[in-house]
Write a structure and sequence with these properties.
63% of the residues lie in helices and 0% in strands. The chain is mainly alpha-helical and 118 residues long. The protein has one domain. Helix 1 crosses helix 2, helix 1 crosses helix 4 and helix 2 packs across helix 3. 30% of the residues are buried.
Amino acid sequence: MTNGGRIFREAWIAGVTKHYPGEPKPGYVAPWDDTPDWERQCAAAVFGQVRDFVRVSAGNTAKLSREQKGRFVALCWIAQIHKHIEAPKPGYVANWDDLPKWQQETDADVFEHIERTV
């Protein structure tokens, strides 16, 4: 599962680098080895959820919109946050419409990257 988590993290960093306005916070682009253990577990779990979703959909996730793909990643991530953090900051569990545009685009990029690797 570590490999899946790394794939997720690399896609996240690429998306942040592409979409974040200005200089991203260091934690947003920290390499895998510098990422906290709980966050690595979240990345691995969400990778697995997206991978499984693509597989059980027989590749038909390609028909989803970028927004639908990004929403899926965001929702899976929120569930993981609740699993690992007892009282998360509101920004960690924000609804899709409350996420900044860069994060929405990054989440969609993450889904599409995982989709291509499956």
